Amino acid sequence: MKKRVAAFALVPALILVGAIVLLNKIGAGSSEKARPPAVTLWAGEDVVNAQGNHLTIGNVIVTSDRLTIQYRATGTAFDAEGLSPAGQPPTQLSVTVDGKALTPLEGNVGGDPQNPFVTGDFSWRWSGGTPRHIHLVVTRILGDPNANWVADFDLQAPASK
């Protein structure tokens, strides 16, 4: 009798789990199809600041709602974190694209304190289209006020093959 009651309770539970799994798969498939394709524009810009440190712009990745810049910076001190003005993030970048200031979304910085460079990426809200001119201002990276650059560069979409 106990086995019959346990089996009777198990069947609805298995049906419920199956329905949840099926709904998750259907939902995941539709959201993946709705995601806009990313276009990677290569900037390849290398900018030197007054301290002789380099900021190399790697990829500029554009989707319909986001613009992301990947970079590599030399001469940034890992131990400078915490020196930022009160209420300000330790890494601060701002960008103007085709004359329009963009709203920052997120960013991250990484690297090894043993290496003389850090890598990172920063994303801003984007309203769509292909950017032609970017004005990038790096105020600081990891709280280091000497990690600052100003860069202007023009982008062109890669040639289609």
Q: Which properties best describe this structure?
A:
single chain, 6-stranded antiparallel β-sheet, 10 strands, 1 helix, 4-stranded antiparallel β-sheet, alpha+beta, 161 residues, Immunoglobulin-like
Characterise this structure:
- Strand 2 and strand 3 (54-62) form a beta hairpin.
- This protein folds into 2 domains: 1-35; 39-154, Conserved domain protein (Immunoglobulin-like), CATH 2.60.40.1640.
- Residues 28-33 have low confidence and may be disordered.
- Strands 1, 2, 3, 4, 7 and 8 form a 6-stranded antiparallel β-sheet that branches. The chain has a 4-stranded antiparallel β-sheet with strand order 6-5-9-10, with no helix packed on it.
- The chain is built from 1 helix and 10 strands.
- It is α+β, with helices and mostly antiparallel strands.
- It is globular, with a radius of gyration of 23 Å.
- The protein has one helix at residues 2-34; strands at residues 39-42, 46-48, 54-62, 66-74, 92-97, 100-101, 104-110, 117-125, 133-140, 149-154.
- Helices cover 20% and strands 39% of the residues.
